[in-house]
Write a structure and sequence with these properties.
By secondary structure, the chain is of the alpha/beta class. The protein has helices at residues 25-30, 44-60, 79-91, 106-118, 132-138, 176-192, 195-203, 215-235, 250-259, 267-284, 290-302, 315-322, 352-360, and strands spanning 3-7, 14-18, 37-42, 64-69, 99-104, 124-129, 143-148, 151-158, 163-166, 335-340, 343-347.
Length: 362
């Protein structure tokens, strides 16, 4: 049974179709009255699993389909990969009515969205996320971009999709590590927005593998997380205020990713580390109860995610990298810090000594 969540934005609202079948992609896109040309973007592994099904669905709905695969991994989220997409778009004469379809995880979604935002000054993009992380977070909200050698997602644009189609069945092929990475973003929603989701996660015996998570909890995870993201984005599309709370755990997390060359930890693992750090910073500042940070960290561990800094990461390098974060304002690093389960605040009044103290304890 498909459930639909609306992202309500002036002039560009769209639907998140949860529990849709990948075989319905063409039919759902046809209802949006898009142009006939489609460029399907994926990586080789995802394309092997789902590419032909997606193309068959699109062709049966009357679309002309070209495809492109890009290497998997955050380290390939670069302008070089975007150039390859531009070349294929030119080769296939993609016009302004055309659509790029992102079939993959967060890296494919971010790159495809950015290419669509900038090709001919903006064409349609449809997100078909295949990882839990992309389903609950990165495919929704229109943030697109690539990495700069000195920082994550420093190059990008806001470009909302025309549709987000989520087929939960594709999670069955997701590697365990990638499933755990997605759980980091789910736990994030529990901390920043949805105390009931947090409680549901606490009640589950295991969160580290899909096979141990009951189907009804997966449904709840998808619907509640997507609803939280849709609610926040509908209120603040371009991160003028409220949307900043979605960066909980990401400030230090992005620094850890960057300093380890996007090879040692994946995005979800870095966010988990960042949430542990942010929770402890909130405790040190007297904003959050120690019991609540223990509850958060217990959930992170239940999901099989790290709570310690990777060995060898230099704390002073983290402090320095924080200054390159996109969210720095007037030279001050902004942190999202919890005040209770389900409620956070944004502050730039975090002394560097507190950050150092917390990181040394990790």
């Amino acid at each position: 049974m498909t459930s639909v969540i609306n992202v309500n934005l002036p002039g560009q609202s769209y639907e998140i179709a949860i529990s849709s079948s990948l075989d319905q992609l063409g039919q759902q896109m046809a209802s949006l009255k898009l142009g006939k040309k489609v460029l399907l973007v994926s990586n080789p592994t995802i394309f092997k699993h789902f590419g032909e099904r997606a193309i068959a669905s699109l062709k049966s709905a009357g679309f002309e389909v070209a495809s492109c695969t890009l290497p998997p991994g955050e380290r390939y989220k670069t302008l070089n990969s975007i150039q390859k997409l531009y070349d294929i778009a030119l080769e296939n004469r993609l016009e302004r009515s055309a659509t790029m379809v992102a079939l993959g995880g967060g890296v494919i979604g971010d790159m495809t969205g950015f290419a669509a935002a900038t090709w001919l000054r903006g064409i349609n993009v449809v997100q078909v996320p295949t990882s839990l992380l992309a389903m609950v977070d990165s495919a929704i909200g229109g943030k697109t971009g690539v990495n700069h050698p000195h920082g994550k997602n420093l190059i990008g644009a806001f470009h909302q999709p025309r549709l987000v189609l989520i087929d939960a069945d594709v999670l069955k092929t997701l590697p365990m590590r990638e499933f755990r990475a997605g759980m980091a973003e789910v736990i994030k929603y529990g901390v920043i927005w949805d105390a009931e989701l947090f409680a549901q996660l606490e009640a589950s015996k295991r969160l580290d593998q899909l096979r141990y998570v009951k189907p009804e909890l997966i449904t709840s995870i998808l619907t509640r997380s997507c609803q939280a993201k849709a609610d926040v984005v509908s209120k603040d599309e371009k991160e003028g205020g409220l949307r900043a709370i979605l960066n909980y755990g990401h400030t230090i997390g992005h620094a850890v990713e960057s300093l380890t060359g996007y090879r040692l930890v994946n995005h979800g693992e870095a966010v988990a580390i960042g949430m542990v750090a942010a929770g402890q910073i909130a405790v040190e500042l007297g904003m959050w109860q120690n019991l609540d940070t223990e509850r958060q960290n217990a959930l992170i561990q239940k999901a099989g995610l790290p709570t310690q800094l990777p060995t060898g990461v230099d704390i002073e390098a983290i402090i320095e990298t924080l200054q390159l974060d996109k969210k720095v304002k007037a030279g001050k690093v902004r942190f999202v810090l919890p005040t209770e389960i389900g409620v956070v605040t944004v502050t730039d009044e975090v002394p560097s000594d507190i950050i150092r103290q917390v990181l040394r304890g990790m």
